[in-house]
Amino acid sequence: MEFLCFQAASQYLGIDARNVHHVVDHGEITPVPLVCSCYMGLVYSRGDLFDVIHVGDLLGQQQGVQNENPRIILLKWSGKKLALVPDKIIGMIYIEKYNKKQSFYHQKDYTVQIIRPDHILKKVSEIAYGPRKV
C-alpha cells in the first residue's frame, strides 16, 4: 500500500495515498480569526475549500517551520476535505505488509507513523479555540 510520507514535529508521518487529492506548492492561505493555533486558515483549490492545519503545531511542536509559501497536502475522503502543512514532504513510500492495526513502520533510517485524516480532525476538534499565536 502506498503512503505519502512527511515530517512534522520531528516525526515521520504517513497518510494513505488514496486520501491525497493533490499537493499544492504555493497555496494562498486565508487566515481565520479566533481559531486554535494549529488552524492556519482556508485554502481554495480547484473549486474546493479546505481547512488548513499545521501538523507540527497540532502535535505540540513549540515553533513550527515558518515558510511563506508552504507545500500543502490536500486530502479528500468520505465527503470530507482537509489540508495539511507539514515541515517537510519526504515522498511516497510503499508498505508491502500493511496492517490497519499497526501504526508504526520502519523505513530505511526512520520510523513512520501512519495517521488517518479522521484522527487529525478529531484531534483538532478537541483543542480549545482562541486567538491564534503569532
Characterise the protein shown here.
This protein has 134 residues and is mainly beta. The strands form 2 sheets. Strands 8-1-2-10-9 form a 5-stranded mixed β-sheet. It has a 5-stranded mixed β-sheet with strand order 3-6-7-5-4. The chain is 10% helix and 46% strand. It is built from 2 helices and 10 strands; from the N terminus they run βββββαβββββα. It has one domain (2-125): OB fold (Dihydrolipoamide Acetyltransferase, E2P). The termini are far apart. A hairpin with a 2-residue loop joins strand 1 (2-8) and strand 2.
Please report the first level of CATH classification, the CATH class: Mainly Beta
**How many strand units?**
10
Mean pLDDT across residues: 87
Please name the CATH topology. Answer: OB fold (Dihydrolipoamide Acetyltransferase, E2P)
